[in-house]
Every structure is written in structure tokens, then in C-alpha cells.
Design goal:
The complex is a heterodimer of chains A (299) and B (264). With 299 residues, chain A is mainly alpha-helical. Chain A has helices spanning 2-32, 39-59, 66-89, 97-119, 144-166, 168-178, 180-185, 190-213, 224-236, 243-261, 263-266, 269-285; strands at residues 124-125, 134-137, 140-143, 217-218. Chain A is built from twelve helices and four strands. The mean pLDDT of chain A is 90. In chain B, helix 3 (99-106) packs parallel to helix 5 (143-156). The chains are: A mainly alpha (299), B alpha/beta (264).
């Protein structure tokens, strides 16, 4: 019983971190109606920026204090997100979905190549940013880094939800998420809103990188997290900020259960497969995800 | 306040929809733009608001000015900021947001919180049914309720010129009447200028100060309310009255209309 609960706790925490990456998909999708296939690569670029300003700078003889590193990294990824939108996706506004999909694939390959070109193929170690170790809660051990990440996800979800429903800028983004022409008729600059969404999505992805990689190893393979979080985003509903962490919980817990009970008999295949099985199952019943926007059709 | 001078609009680079349209809306007036389907009414409105782009349309000749400024190729967000707000046709509420959020989106360009609040109360005053609906999801409202949200949302932007594209579409006659009465009241109390596109000619003419009639992308007739009401053609085409003020059947009107177009 204790074992089971321990598995559930770990699964829930990991799931909430998936939820964090899923939020970055959702933020971008809402405004631009683009599912950014390269979101994992975007996260890796954010992580490499983090490495550059911390270990990289230290190796070159400049020790930058951690808070400044974080600020520099976030500034870097604001510029990076804006550049991606400006150079690749803005010129494609109004083009067919397939063109945009192919541009997404191209971006994925391009970012992989560029990352390797700029930072090299060897893996890098990311400094410890969040506290290591675990806290004991009764009979359970809770990983501190994941706990902080999970709490961050929850706080961010609440904050983003309030932002999208109350603030002027957030309402603008919400209007763009609904319909571009209507938003325009209300005086919302759709281009500006999409740019803001990309920047926001990139920042969220990079914060997920901090949670995932603090004190561990960064390599190009980390980008796989993008494809792990995509089913979470689809499951939660591509328009729903609050759906993402909830779907993350579901996937995280199922995955942890799978890896504890099914992986030993399936050579470890079950837990990798599960998120996609769960996603397909749910999408068959609710194509717009658990909390996504169902098209309201009226006659 | 709003002037269109010899405006041509071309869609997709080949299809000319508006030919040399001239139109003027004076401050404080309610101007109505009438015409059959496909006459170019909505295109005219989209040209004014700078929303042609989405349909690959463009103003290729002539100019549009609002409050003394040229807005022919202006970005819609600038136009709204200047006080020209359009309610598009087809009940385009933000479906998944609540009624309250819909109203607040209308005020997204404004920083004057206190004034926004008092405008919100004004909107509730014009549409007393709204306060009870604030937390409802807008996509599930009835047609009449949506229309209230749309006009309320436009008012939240504090417009000087309000453009309405067929607000009565799909509404029951009684609701249409109520709606026009409210629009008239808003216009009087807020000193608003209104440009109204309508199929419902009778109700619209009764409310307006001045009217334009479009056909085939041209303005074919214009005049004050009295002139329009007295005009033989308007009576026959739009009000369904014969020469001796009896109602004419639709068949006769259609026949007459076709003949008239060929001859004229």
C-alpha cells in the first residue's frame, strides 16, 4: 500500500511537470492555432541558453550569480520566441494548415541542427538551481526538485488563468484564441497577440527546462519531452490552460503505475506507450480533449 | 464624420465588388444602408473598418476618412482606438468566454477603469436582461441575448461611430422592434453616430435620419428619411407598397424589378 502511494505521488509530480510543458503548447496554440511540433527543441534551446550563462560562462572565466543567470536566460528565450514567430510563422499567417505543419517539421529539424552547430553534440551538465534531495512526509519520500516544479505548475496555471480572464492583455489573447476576425473587429492586433503568445510559450517551456534539468545532464535527447507533453496537451484540450496540469496528473500517474507493474513484464515498453494509448482513447470519445473548446454549433 | 469618396473594392485582385461608392455619415446621425443580398453592403462596412484583408479584398481606389483623418488603409486596431467600432454580421460573440468577459474585451484598449465601470452600468441600463446573464457562456445564449452582448461589447469601447451589420438577422419581429428602439435610445442618450446595414427596410428607415440604397456594388439612391419614404421605387422594392399604397405581392415586385433593371 505504501509502495502504491509512493508510486502515485511520484507519478503525480512528474505528471505536473509534463503539464508545465503542455501549458507551453497550449499558450501558443490558443493564439496562433499552431501546434508547435518543435516545442521540445525550443525547450532544449532554452536549456542551452541556461547552460551558456551558467556553466559555459563559468568555464570562460565569468562567474555569473544564479539570479542574473535566470534573468539572462529568460531574456534570451523572449528574444528567441519572438524570432521564431517573426521569421517562420508570421509570414505563414493565413496559409493552409499543411504548410504550417511542414514549417513546424522544418523548424524541428532546423533547431536540432542549429543547437548541435552552436553548442556541439556533447552533453552538458546543468548546475543545481532547485534544491536537491528529498523530504520525508510520513512514510513517503518526495523529491524536492519535482515538488517545487509541481507547485510551480499549479501556481502558474492559476496565474495564467487569471491573466487570460481578467487582464486587458490576457482578454486580448483570449479574443484572438476565439476568432481572428472578431478579435480584429474589436481592435485587437492579432499579430501582436500571436507574438506575445510565442514569447510566453517559450518562457514557460524554458521554466520547464529548469525544473527538469536542474542538477542533471543536458543533451539533445531531452527534446523528447516535447512529444511526451504533446499528448498531455491534447488530452487536456488545446485551448485549456487548466486542462494541461490535470491531464498531466492523469498521464503521470498512469505512467508511474505502468512502469511499476507492467514494465517488468514488457521489457519497459508499456510506460513509454501509455501516454499515447490514453490520448487516443480519450480523443476517440472527446475529440476536443477533456477541457478543450467544443465547437458550439447552433441551428 | 465618416466619408467614403469614390471607393472601389476588389476581391482577390479580380472581382470588383464596390464601384465608386460615395457615402457620408454626419455627426449625430443615424444612417441606414439598404440593399439586397450581394449588393455590397457588408463589403462597404469592412472597407471602412479595415477588415477586408481577411477575405483577400482591398480598397483599390478612392478614400475613406473618419473624423478628418484618412483611414483607408489603416490597421483596424487604430480605427477602433479612434472611436469607430463595428459589430460584424452573424452574432460573433466570443463563444467560450462568459458574457462579462465578452463585455470587458470590448474595453480592452481603455485604461480609465472608473469610466469603464460606469459604461458597464450604462450597458446594463440599456439592456436590463444582461446583468442576470453575466456568468453564462456566450456561445449558449439565444440570438436576442447574443445581440445584446454584441452591442454592449461595442459600447464598452466607447465608440463615437457605431456600425451595425444586420443586427436584426434571425430575430423575431418583436425583438427586432425592441432592438431598434434600444439603438435609437442609445443614439439619443449617448450622442452616438450610427451606421446601420439592414435587410429589414421598414424598421430601419423608420429610425434613420438618412439612407443609402445599394445595388450591384453601387449606391443607386440616397436621401433623407422623408425622401426615402416618399420615393416610389423604395416603396415598391423595399416597403412592398404599390403605387396606390397597397401591398404588392413579392412576385410582382420581382418581375417589376427585373424589368426595371433591364430598361434602366
Amino acid at each position: 500500500m505504501i509502495d502504491l502511494l509512493q508510486i502515485l505521488i511520484e507519478g503525480a509530480l512528474v505528471g505536473l511537470v509534463y503539464g508545465l510543458v503542455a501549458i507551453s503548447f497550449v499558450v501558443i496554440y490558443r493564439a496562433s492555432k499552431i501546434i508547435n511540433l518543435a516545442q521540445g527543441e525550443v525547450l532544449v534551446v532554452g536549456a542551452f541558453l541556461l547552460w551558456t550563462f551558467s556553466e559555459g560562462a563559468a568555464a570562460a572565466g565569468y562567474a555569473i550569480p544564479m539570479p542574473v543567470v535566470i534573468v539572462l536566460t529568460l531574456t534570451g528565450c523572449v528574444i528567441f520566441g519572438w524570432l521564431v514567430e517573426r521569421t517562420i510563422f508570421r509570414p505563414l499567417i493565413g496559409q493552409p494548415a499543411f504548410t504550417i505543419f511542414m514549417a513546424g517539421v522544418a523548424l524541428l529539424i532546423l533547431l536540432r541542427g542549429l543547437t548541435q552547430l552552436v553548442w556541439g553534440a556533447q552533453s552538458r551538465s546543468i548546475p543545481v538551481i532547485l534544491p536537491e534531495g528529498a523530504i520525508t512526509l510520513g512514510p513517503f519520500l518526495v523529491n524536492t526538485r519535482l515538488l517545487i516544479g509541481a507547485l510551480f505548475t499549479v501556481v502558474l496555471t492559476v496565474a495564467l488563468h487569471a491573466f487570460f480572464t481578467r487582464s486587458r492583455l490576457g482578454l486580448r489573447l483570449a479574443a484572438v484564441a476565439e476568432d481572428h476576425t472578431t478579435a480584429q473587429s474589436l481592435g485587437v492586433s492579432v499579430k501582436q497577440a500571436i507574438a506575445v503568445a510565442w514569447v510566453l510559450g517559450t518562457v514557460v517551456a524554458t521554466s520547464a527546462a529548469v525544473v527538469l534539468l536542474s542538477g542533471s545532464i543536458l543533451s539533445l535527447e531531452v527534446a523528447v519531452i516535447g512529444f511526451k507533453a504533446l499528448p498531455v496537451a491534447l488530452l487536456g484540450g488545446m485551448e485549456s490552460i487548466r486542462g494541461a496540469p490535470l491531464a498531466g496528473l492523469i498521464i503521470g500517474i498512469l505512467e508511474a503505475l505502468c512502469s511499476a507493474y507492467l514494465d517488468p513484464v514488457t521489457n519497459g515498453a508499456a510506460s513509454g506507450l501509455l501516454p499515447y494509448v490514453a490520448m487516443v482513447a480519450v480523443l476517440l470519445i472527446r475529440p476536443y480533449g477533456l477541457f478543450g473548446w467544443r465547437r458550439i454549433e447552433r441551428l | 464624420m465618416l466619408t467614403l469618396a469614390n471607393v472601389d473594392v476588389v476581391y482577390g485582385g479580380v472581382i470588383q465588388v464596390l464601384r465608386s461608392a460615395n457615402l457620408e455619415v454626419r455627426e449625430g446621425q443615424m444612417v441606414v444602408l439598404l440593399g439586397a443580398n450581394g449588393a455590397g453592403k457588408t463589403t462597404t462596412l469592412r472597407a471602412i473598418s479595415g477588415l477586408l484583408h481577411a477575405d483577400h479584398g482591398a480598397v483599390t481606389a478612392g478614400g475613406i476618412s473618419f473624423a478628418g483623418r484618412d483611414i483607408t488603409h489603416q490597421d483596424p486596431s487604430e480605427t477602433v482606438k479612434a472611436g469607430l467600432v463595428q459589430v460584424l454580421e452573424g452574432r460573433r460573440v466570443l463563444e467560450h468566454l462568459t458574457v462579462y468577459q465578452n463585455l470587458m474585451v470590448g474595453a480592452h484598449l481603455r485604461r480609465d477603469r472608473a469610466a469603464v465601470k460606469s459604461d458597464l452600468n450604462k450597458v446594463y441600463d440599456f439592456f436590463p436582461a444582461l446583468p442576470a446573464l453575466l456568468n453564462r457562456i456566450a456561445g449558449y445564449l439565444s440570438g436576442g441575448e447574443m445581440q445584446m452582448v454584441l452591442i454592449g461589447r461595442a459600447l464598452m469601447a466607447r465608440p463615437r461611430l457605431l456600425i451595425l451589420d444586420e443586427p436584426s438577422m434571425g430575430l423575431a419581429p418583436i425583438l427586432t422592434q425592441q432592438l431598434f428602439r434600444t439603438i435609437g435610445r442609445i443614439k439619443r442618450e449617448e450622442g452616438l453616430t450610427v451606421l446601420l446595414v439592414e435587410q429589414n427596410a421598414r424598421a430601419a428607415i423608420a429610425q434613420c435620419d438618412y439612407g443609402y440604397i445599394m445595388e450591384g456594388g453601387r449606391i443607386v439612391l440616397h436621401g433623407s428619411r422623408q425622401e426615402l419614404e416618399g420615393n416610389q421605387d423604395v416603396q415598391e422594392f423595399y416597403l412592398g407598397l404599390g403605387a396606390s399604397n397597397e401591398r404588392v405581392s413579392y412576385r410582382e415586385v420581382k418581375h417589376y424589378r427585373r424589368r426595371k433593371r433591364w430598361l434602366g
